[in-house]
Specification:
There is one protein chain. This protein has no helices and 15 strands. The protein has 171 residues and is mainly β. A hairpin with a 3-residue loop joins strand 1 and strand 2. The protein is rod-shaped.
């Protein structure tokens, strides 16, 4: 039996074992590089409102994560051999453009895999900017289409609403 200890390096390794007796024999051994896997290889699709997402990283060796966006963060940014729960925190996208980023997972200096992040642009629309209600008390429906949080921040005392705030669409 030939047994190799765990390879914690990002590169495979090779060795030769030579046996000598009446004859000489050489055995060539190759051991795979340390690896990683994730519950998510992406891309992760995120709404304009942002949020937190969980990934499980399983690695054969110490690892680190490198991000390329200031609008999202990962915690922890590095881990040891084994399984680690990682939280990806994504800020709301307050622009009218989609944005994209990625996380590179590495063992040593070697890229093992990347997870892409695509965040849709924010939108907030109302069905009409003008409502007309007669002198007798009455109701009209206003529809909100949104992918972000919203709040009614002002209204006169004589107006009431069924909903004061929300996340996403409402009527």
């Amino acid at each position: 039996t030939i047994t190799a200890i765990q390879n914690s390096n990002a590169a495979s390794r090779k060795a030769t074992v030579t046996l000598s007796g009446i004859l000489t024999e050489t055995i060539h051994i190759t051991q795979d590089a340390a690896g990683m896997e994730s519950t998510e290889y992406g891309p992760i699709e995120v709404g304009g409102g942002g949020g937190n997402y969980s990934l499980m990283i399983t690695s054969d060796a110490a690892w680190k994560a490198i991000t390329n966006g200031s609008w999202f963060a990962i915690s922890p940014t590095e881990g040891e051999k084994g399984t680690t729960a990682v939280v990806l925190s994504i800020s709301p996208n307050n622009s009218t453009s989609e944005r994209n980023g990625k996380i590179d997972f590495k063992i040593g200096s070697k890229d093992i895999f990347s997870v892409g992040i695509n965040q849709e642009k924010s939108y907030f629309n109302i069905s009409t900017a003008n409502l007309s209600i007669g002198a007798v008390a009455g109701s009209r429906t206003l529809t909100v289409s949104s992918n972000v949080e919203w709040t009614i921040i002002s209204k006169p005392e004589w107006i009431t609403t069924d909903i004061e705030s929300g996340t996403g669409d409402a009527s």
